C-alpha cells in the first residue's frame, strides 16, 4: 500500500524557518518525481514545487511565490522527501501536502498519491 | 503562468443529476489537464489526467474531455459520495497551476 506521511508542521513567527518531512512507503521512491502542494485555509490549491529523481539529477522546479525561500530535497536511502522553508510570511500559512508524481512523461506528470497534510501556521 | 478558470465555482445538484464543470486555460495546454476531487479534511484525489484518461479505480460515471484551452469534467449520474470540491490542474508547463475549484453541494 502506498503511504506518504508528512511531519514537522507547527507554528512559526514571520521571518522564521521550518522544515517538513514526508516519509513514504509502498513504492520505489527513487524512481519517482515528488511534489509539494499547499492549500491555504478555506482556499484552493497551490503547487509549491517538484524534485526529479536521480536519473534526472534531482533537479527542482518552484512556484514563483516560494522560489529563493523554499528548498525541496530528498534522501532516497531513507525514502524521504523534505521541504525547507525560510523567510516565512503570513501568507505561507497553509496545509502542506507531499505527493507522488505518477510518471515522468508529461501526459502523466500528475499527483496520484498524496499525504494527509501538515499544517504550517505563520503568525506572531 | 497559465491561469485556469473554473466554472461554476459552486453548484447545487441532486442525486442522479448529470453535472458538468468547465475549466478554461489562459493559453493552449494541448490535453495536459487533470481533475481532482477533494472532500473536507482530506487530500485531493486524482480522477482524470491528460484530459480524458481515467486514474485507476475511478468510476466510469466520471469523464473528461477537451483540448487546447477548454475542458470539461462530467459526472453522468451524481452519487451521494460525489459531493465534494473539484479542481482542474494543468500539467503542460511549469509552474503547474490549479483552477479555483468547483464545490458540488446537495440540492
Describe how the helices and strands are arranged.
The complex is a heterodimer of chains A (124) and B (107).
Chain A: E1 3-7, E2 10-12, E3 18-25, E4 34-39, E5 45-51, E6 60-62, E7 70-75, E8 80-85, E9 94-101, E10 111-114, E11 118-122
Chain B: E1 4-7, E2 10-13, E3 19-25, E4 33-38, E5 45-49, E6 53-54, E7 62-67, E8 70-75, E9 85-90, E10 97-98, E11 102-106
Parallel strand pairs in B: 2-11
Antiparallel strand pairs in B: 1-3, 3-8, 4-5, 4-9, 5-6, 7-8, 9-10, 9-11
Name the descriptors.
heterodimer, A: 11 strands, B: 107 residues, mainly beta, 7-stranded mixed β-sheet, 4-stranded antiparallel β-sheet, 11 strands, globular
Walk me through the structure.
The complex is a heterodimer of chains A (124) and B (107). In chain A, 0% of the residues lie in helices and 49% in strands. Chain A has 124 residues and is mainly beta. In chain A, β4 and β5 form a beta hairpin. Chain B is an all-beta fold and 107 residues long. Helices cover 0% and strands 50% of the residues of chain B. Chain B is built from no helices and eleven strands. In chain B, strands 2, 4, 5, 6, 9, 10 and 11 form a seven-stranded mixed sheet that branches. Chain B has a four-stranded antiparallel sheet with strand order 1-3-8-7, with no helix packed on it. The model of chain B has no long low-confidence stretch (mean pLDDT 96). Classes of the chains: A mainly beta (124), B mainly beta (107). At the A-B interface, β5 and β10 of A face β4, β5 and β10 of B.
